[in-house]
Amino acid sequence: MAMKTYAQAVNDALREEMRQDKNIVLFGEDVAKHGGIFQATKGLQEEFGGDRVKDAPIAETAIVGAAIGAAATGLRPVAEIMYGDFLLVAYHEIYHMMAKWRFMHGEEFKIPMVIRSAQGSSFGAACEHSNCVEPLFIHSPGLTIISPSNVYDVKGLLKSAIRSNNPVLFLEHKQLYKSKMEIPDEEYTLPIGVADVKRQGSDCTVVAIGLMVGRSLEAAEILAKEGIELEVIDPRTIAPMDYQAIYDSVAKTHRLVVAEESNLTGGLGAEISARVMENAFFELDAPVGRVAALDVPIPYNVELEIQVVPSVEKIVAAVKTACNK
Amino acid sequence: MKHEIVMPKAGLTNTEGVISAWALENGAQVKKGDVIGDIENEKSTIALTSPADGFLANLAEPGEEFKVGAVIGYVVGTSAEASDLPQAAAPAPSAEQPAAPALSAPVPVAQASAKGARKRISPYAKKLAESRGVDYFQLAGTGPGGSVVAADILKAIQEGVPAPAPAPVAAIEAAVQGEYTESPASAMRRSIAKNLQASLQNSAQAQASAEMDVTALLAFKDSLKGMEEALGNKITLNEILSYIVVKLAAKHEGLNSVLTQDGMLRRYRHVALAFALANEKGLITPVVREADRMSLNAFSQEMKRLVALGRDNALELQDLQGGTITISNLGMYPVDGFTPIVNPPQAAIFGFGRAVSKPVYVDSRLEKREMMHISIAFDHRSMDGADVGEVFKSLKALVEEPQLLLLY
Amino acid sequence: MMNYEPALLKKLYRNYLALREAEKVMVDIYYTGKVPGHIHSGEGEEATLAAVLELMRQGDYFSGHHRVLASTYLTGVPFREIFAEIMGKRTGTARGVSGCNHTCDLRKGGLGTSSSLGSDTGIAVGAALTCKLRGDKSLAIKEYGDATSSRGPVHEGMVLAASWQLPVFFVSTYNTFGISGDSRELLPTAHPTADRAKGYGMPSEVAQGNDILEIYEKASKLMDYIRETGKPAVLETVNYRWRGHFEGDQCAYRDEAEAEAARKNDGLAKFEKELLAKKVMTKKEIEAMKKEIADELDDAVKFGEESPAPTMEDVRVMMLAEEN
User: Fold this and answer.
1) Considering only CA atoms, which of C136, C113, C125 is closest in space to residue C59?
2) Does the complex come out with an ipTM higher than 0.90?
3) Could you tell me which chain A residue has the CA closest to the CA of B125?
4) Residue B349 — φ and ψ, nearest 5°?
5) C-alpha pair distances (Å), B337 with each of A259, B341, B351, B355, B378
6) Which chains touch C (3 or more CB pairs under 8 A)?
7) Which subunits sit against A, judged by 3+ Cβ pairs under 8 A?
């Protein structure tokens, strides 16, 4: 076991995979010489050379396009688009091309590529640099989306994403890069499409995404003192989502709250609510609660940002409402 | 600021109503439109909503009858004002008794019989209520807006559903003269009364019966005596009869079904056998869950466990819920036969009388045989005579050749 | 012409002819209702691809655009598969679920095309990265038009190819029109792609779109350069779009006389005339070749008509590759 940060876990995953498979290449803005603005790709160009680890000019549509072309022709590219917000610069290239290139051209095509991106609020980054974008991409059939919430998960899931033969959008969180956890030294992978119960409980289920997983666990401690035992589910893979794990949990607790950092309207909570209503309606003792960012652009002023992005307190309140307390 | 809460008019001809229960207490804070209580009249129960935002005050006593339009409470601006108000109007003098003999006492039947009379209840609580036969219309919900939540159903099961407002039966009582003593019927007695009355009113019950030759069955029971040590258990006739009912319910899906309020015929995968047990409190029905998966010996041991706990009133909630079919056995009394009443929302109930030695023609010979009267009461809405006929065929086979229990 | 081997000239003629005949058949089957979607005719613009694809080698990659769909044929994909795809059938290059604009076979170097023209520039750049790492002097061809050249992703793709020094051959088939937009009015320079090449540090050439040998010569020079240096280069050919943007386009926005003049200035007719004059081919040979191609195309259309439609199972298979 060793204490690692989330950024180090990403670095280790990339390094381990690149040592095992010579076809893996890495490129993006500031990833090679500088090692990435969060240092997640530090030292990789030194070890693997300039042919496999490359800095790109500011050209997101070409970065994504090149990853698709390289993946189709036998490489396993891991491209970085620095911020989740900039994924939208290449929205067509990701939503249509990356997800559907195989569908559009023939079953001999395999697109084993990963796009890594850092998303989420980070105190004062303002409305074009703070967004969580899962809801914008779950609508694209064929795109795998992963949002790891902690050090252990990010390493195992990144390795699986790289080994997948299908395109993956891998969304890391800016605030999590410095978080630390003890993780195994031995190699491990985690399965794509399988949710993780981060905490067992019997009174209410919270499905939490990304940064909200940690906040939900904090909320659970507060609620436990009042006799409410929260079950926290971290889907880990946003698309395809492990809905069965959610149905099973709701069958046990009969109450559900979804906690996400993306905006409320059209967010993941909307999709999860609809599915739970369709498949576990008779297990619900209360309407599904949603905790999400307010439907405003993320403000620059940090105090306002904190009010807009869901807090531990908001999660506690939503659970209490669901528990009729 | 004060708003009057008035007795609402439930329909064109409605002139009086009874507050069957308040959902909240004096002093509770409400918003306009929140459900604050249930009002019952001859035809239905409707939800009473708050006319304004504020605090509830001077709510009239439940159970009393008021004319439509009479003031039955107030919503005031502050909790301090609540104590300063005059009493709510006195109930309407009973000038005109709606003569209501007990047999046709108003019992809420369908869900939304009056406009706007839908009961707000969570999907899970409704599922619980249906499986347990709890009439949730009677309940004051503690959920948002006065809706009924799971906790309310579980509480109702524990304590017995509150009784509906008693309809005035002065006319009948007056006809029976003489001294009497009176004590309040227990919650359980009231609950049983209500459920069984509702059962007869809300279903189409029919019966069938037969006098069956249980000689072989009794011999089978006796043959097990020598194996008590090996089985670690003494299997009783009651247990064997109950087990036969389990086998019948597993084989004939009509017996193990429920017709839900939404018109769905729900067939349960497993047989949960409820059996009538008398204890000091009255009548309870413990449930052997997933009885269809048990051997006779395991089933017998489970029944004994439930009987022991049931006699001491120590049964857990899960052992009292979820029965799919019931058996009632009066054979330990000098009762030849009887017709039990179906336990809603189940589809059927079996009644067993005592075994009696009788002269019976077997082929053309007269022999002494042990005979027992077995009857079934069933809900004709979900089972027909032909279905019941098939059931009795299987029943006869099992009773006359108990070794078939191995094969079913 | 006499500097070229007769065999090569015949091959170039056959390429040109095959693409032309295929374009005509495609329009015919559209008007007889056999094609579910839109098609975009490239009739008159075939010379560029007829020449460039002749220079393609094993290990090279090619991404075309929405005109001259049968260019895929020159990479070795049978007409049958191309037309089955255009007709939306299960035997097509993408099981009929993709459609007209994306016919290709990866195993023959086909990379595919995005309907959002120009967004796929990066695809060729990525393929060129693979070529570079393989170190076998192979290259990736990206062909597109003048209207497309305005798009951001085209610029970003060229910048990336230049920054990483990758063997990409950018081939722009300038055909004067986007849909109704006349590039001579809308775009800042006469040769929008070739004129910008210098800004990307790339060598460039311009050739007449109806002169197949000029195109072949210049393409050959540039492709040799790309293979030797591993660096990108640009070729722009000047054409005039003969038909509408899509079939059914009445072209009210342009001068019909100018279009008619362009159609008369047919590079294939000119080439054929010269081949006959210089006795490289005989009339009989040409007739035989025309018949052979016509038969191949008839067979392909019949094959497409008789093929079954795809099912939802095909959709499922086409969505995701098998995992290991």
Assistant:
1) C136
2) yes
3) A285
4) -145, 140
5) 62, 13, 7, 10, 16
6) A
7) B, C
